[in-house]
Amino acid sequence: PSRPQFQKNHTHLIYPHFYLCGSRTPRSSFDHPLRLSSLHSLPFPRFAMAGEADGLTSFLFYTLFVYPSCSWILKPGRFPKKRAVLYAVAFLAGLAFLKTGAEVMERGGNHYTKLGVYRTSTAMEIKKAYKRLSLELHPDKNPSPTAADDFAALKSSYDVIMDLENRAVYNKFGDSGVKNNKSTFDETGMLLEMGVFYATWAMLSFVLTLGKSGTMARSWIYTGQIVMLLVEITLMTTEDPLPEWFFPSTTEHEWIWLLHSLFPAYMNGCRCLGGFLYKDVDEETRALLDALKEQNRDVLMVLRDVQIQVGAITARG
């Protein structure tokens, strides 16, 4: 069938690319347009991140604990300059890795990993994986006390990714989008919510980098924000933006969540290193002029002494 681009209401329609056994012929049950989810009535920052509370906790953690600790490492005279930078970067990277890793473990696997399939898996592959796992996890055969919950979670994962519309919504927006039954993709609403999110972080970054010493850090932070925004727009507005080989079980929604989770660490790292590496040219110039003035004064004093001694010798004649 031909691929329609827009309906009269300008809703984007996307045909899925799921094929069976390497065939280029779509499965008949998959042969219909797919509508992506909208963001109506759902705040994007909360939707894309683990939650507003998690975002605030992460911001406070990095701002009130990590930043002072990193500043202590970078205190002038505590370590040689190159070693201090190396220690600070290692400290920030280690903490970000541990914190984000703990959050990933707490979130658990997504629907693809629970079934052991990929984003591009066909309907036949998904059914085969579900049948195999359902036999293992069925409460009648699984003695685990959580067998019923495990089986229900498996069934829920299967229901989501076997439904084309829910599958696309899940890839872009996670479980929240599926639960809110979003059926249309509103680019204007999405971009507006993105703008609010990034503008909020930009204002926070500006406040936290006030002063001359924060100029370099502010430019680094804003550059990182621009890159992150471009990546996010690409992930959200492009059909299948991730290559098949690139973390094949990870969704676009999870990558956006990861970017948002790591941004507070990046921001505070820029603050620490930017302040440490910043050089106040005006202050250095002023100090140099003061030093030259002192040297000139010393030279004038010496010349005056020489003049006095020459005058005394001439008077003795």
Tell me what you see in this structure.
The chain is mostly helical. The termini are far apart.
What's a quick, concise take on this entry?
The chain is built from 11 helices and no strands. It is an all-alpha fold and 317 residues long.
What's the shape?
A: elongated
Task: Describe the largest sheet.
Answer: none
Number of helices: 11
Number of strands: 0
- The ordered H/E elements are HHHHHHHHHHH
Give the helix level as a range of percent: 55-70%
Radius of gyration: 31 Å
Class per helix and strand makeup: mainly alpha
Low-confidence stretches: 1-50
Mean pLDDT level = 80
Beta-strand fraction estimate: under 5%
Span of the ends, CA to CA: 117 Å
SSE inventory with pairings:
Blueprint (H helix, E strand, L loop, with lengths): L43 H5 L3 H22 L7 H27 L3 H5 L7 H15 L9 H16 L1 H16 L7 H22 L6 H23 L14 H26 L3 H36 L1
Helix pairs in contact: 2-3, 2-10, 3-10, 5-6, 8-9, 9-10
Which key phrases capture this entry?
317 residues; mainly alpha; 11 helices; disordered N terminus
